[in-house]
């Protein structure tokens, strides 16, 4: 059985791609105020939420269960509006050896935008399911954030 995989989802948003990308590239600490599924975020290590040496701790709900993990930004590509996050610790390490989350904010025709989430993962064993619950979580959270960004 295959232990490594990649899944993705794309969600259309009404907010501009620049506004949505700015939230993740320079205002990440606000996400907990915009999504009911995010219970808490805090800076675990480092001085800056967006520094390459900063580690954030997230507490969130997927499928009715509270989860925790740590996150670092591995790559930030402002030109292509793409960020690669590495998630680890907490519940992630119980199921996955590798868990990378890639956010891409895409400009679409007519001034519209979309947010694409991709998870690249490696399970610790073949009995672990792919992280489909995370895809649902990111899709729903994207809609929550978009609704707020459109009002702001």
UniProtKB/TrEMBL annotation:
Top-level lineage group: Eukaryota
Gene Ontology BP, a term: defense response
Transmembrane segments: none
Xref: SMART domains: Bet_v_1 (SM01037)
CDD domains cross-referenced by the UniProt entry: Bet_v1-like
InterPro entries assigned to the protein according to its UniProt record, in alphabetical order: Bet_v_I/MLP, MLP-like, START-like_dom_sf
Alphabetical list of SUPFAM superfamilies matching this protein: Bet v1-like
Pfam families: Bet_v_1
Annotated Bet v I/Major latex protein domain residues: 2-152
Record-stated family: Belongs to the MLP family.
Annotated PANTHER family: POLYKETIDE CYCLASE/DEHYDRASE AND LIPID TRANSPORT SUPERFAMILY PROTEIN, POLYKETIDE CYCLASE_DEHYDRASE AND LIPID TRANSPORT SUPERFAMILY PROTEIN
Annotated protein name in UniProt: Pathogenesis-related protein bet V I family protein
Species the sequence originates in: Medicago truncatula (Barrel medic)
């Amino acid at each position: 059985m295959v232990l490594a995989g990649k899944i993705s989802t794309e969600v259309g948003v009404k907010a501009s791609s620049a506004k949505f990308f700015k939230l993740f590239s320079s205002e990440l600490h606000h996400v907990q105020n915009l999504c009911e599924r995010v219970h808490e975020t805090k800076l675990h290590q480092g001085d800056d939420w967006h520094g390459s040496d900063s580690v954030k701790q997230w507490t969130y709900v997927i499928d009715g269960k509270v989860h925790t993990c740590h996150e670092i930004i591995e790559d930030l590509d402002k030109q292509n509006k793409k960020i690669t996050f590495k998630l680890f610790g907490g519940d992630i390490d119980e199921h996955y050896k590798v868990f990378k989350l890639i956010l891409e904010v895409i400009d679409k025709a007519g001034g519209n935008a979309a947010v694409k989430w991709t998870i690249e993962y490696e399970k610790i064993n073949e009995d672990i399911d792919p992280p489909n619950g995370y895809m649902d979580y990111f899709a729903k959270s994207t809609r929550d954030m978009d609704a707020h960004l459109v009002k702001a």
